[in-house]
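re: ur question from earlier - yeah i can do the single chain one, its not a big deal. heres the input i used so u can compare w yours
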Amino acid sequence: MRTLIIQLIVHSPIDMGSMKDVLTERGIEKLGKKAWEENLKKIEKFWNRVEEAINKLNLDYRKVRIFQDGMPVSGGLALKIIDETAEKGSRNYQIIKKMVEKGAKIEETESKELLLKEYEYVKKFTNPKSEERKDALKEYEKAKDELIRKRDEFIAKKIDENLKEDEIGFLFIGAHHSIKPFLPKNILVKDLG
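and the output i got, formated as tokens:
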């Protein structure tokens, strides 16, 4: 039996790569500096609970395959991304790095093309110099459900292709995704938290 454990994730600014500064600025504008800092503390506590829950599973990491929201590569390049993002302070990637160090494998999870398409939308409506910011946000709102559905189908396909019999998949995925409907019936799906 193949098993997939799903952990819904909360992105921290560090996880947003080149969009980090703009999104942090937008968050502070929207919430205020104090509320933004409180939000960051909540995110840290969230990831501490996730790490505790994973540790309690006592997994044989040699049988674990990790699928990460936004990860369009595997192998050495994925490990480099994990190391660099973990070093910058991403709790999500720090946890994955520890799992990999114990023997887990990181898998290509996402379509480069679909991620790039979403990035282009987000870049347009987060650009403070863009006069078309409102139009760009409306354009993204129209396209996002279909884009996320396509990403979810791709992710489910990658899980099916790479998760072998008697292995445990670990999917770290944003809450707006819905992978389960696209997974084959011979994968037992569990939620971590």
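The first helix runs from residue 20 to 31. not sure if urs matches, ping me
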